[in-house]
User: Fold this.
Amino acid sequence: MASAAEQLAKNLNWANISKATELKKRLWFTLGALIVYRIGSYIPLPGVDPAALAEMFQRQAGGIAGLLDVFSGGSIGRMSILALSIMPYISASIIMQILTTVIPSFEAMKKEGEAGRKKINQYTRYGTVFLAVIQAYSIAVGLETQTSSLGPVVVDPGLYFRFVTVVTLTGGTLFLMWLGEQVTSRGVGNGISLIIFAGIVAAMPGALVQTLELGRTGALSALFIIGLGVGAVAVVAFTVFVELSQRRILVQYPKRFTGYGSQVTTNYLPLKINTAGVIPPIFASSLLLFPATLAGFQGGGQSADWMQWIATYLGHGQPLYLLTYILLIVFFCFFYTTVVFQPTETAENLKKYGGFLPGIRPGKNTADYLEYVLTRITVIGSLYLAAVCIIPELLISRGGVPFYFGGTSLLIVVSVTLDTINQVQSHLMAYQYGDLIGQARLKGGKGR
Assistant:
């Protein structure tokens, strides 16, 4: 067994991808799906003037539209048929996760196993359609009110334009939802996450070229650009380290008496340092950028003076913005951690299967200890999220970095990359085990 494991570890490398036929098919399918997504992000929405839209979007790039444009791979800035991207589905999934913890009927549905999971997925799809219709109609109405120096953004406003916009944008979101599910089942990695990942990564080459061009013209010093590159590598390495970090709690099960003596089964309960993932930065960014977006749509009228004041003091790099951003990240980190991890439920499951923590009584004492540990690692996780998200804000406002690649984008890219690599390694491991079993059977047949 040990020699087989050593041979498996030795042969488990990226070169074996060329030998794993099933894995190659999955990788090609994933790549093809992402190419289709990127092509769709360039198909324009009917009835919109591209030049007037570009000028309007440039004026409002500091609002929530700019944040969503990062996640959509530029689809909102181009107002393509995939402008809503997959965000309505993400929002519906988050809402369903919250409902399963606060509504008893949804909580009972979650515990029904596969049947309950299918019901929750179906409700999530209904919620996606509902949110997509509302957001698409809001975009249609908002575009009709926008004008630029080149004229109105919408060529022919009216009921027909609103109907076409709602149908087109909702259909684009449903298509991406279906495409993501296909990638998850027939490709490699989580399809929904990979779609967001592709949108973010697609903007990176242009941002890099823009930064180098500013260095060539002297707007940014060469030393600053080099330091920025080194710092980016360090932040990515730190993010990977924290995302892989766990607090492993020892769990033991009762002794089993066999013919060879007693045995103690030992296992570990892993608690991630960053249990909440990327949800806190997304919520915090959306709430902070919402006033700036409203101010952009309101314009400069007297009725919007209070909104303009809020947008000014909550702008990127402002002290009030940075402080509020940190507080919101910490708050949502604790809030969402309590949603996704229930110490009482975990303690009951351990007690049900006979597991216990050494030195701690099962039941309430175990739940209290898990909550004690979870609270302390969540403090570390929330401070880590705040630091990763604040550094880009400081670089943009103080260092003059010309692109917005915030902490949320960085966390998504790192998390999706790690998850995809783990799945590729799992497929390679399955291929290696199959190869080893085949070799063992061949040798056994020759021995006979």
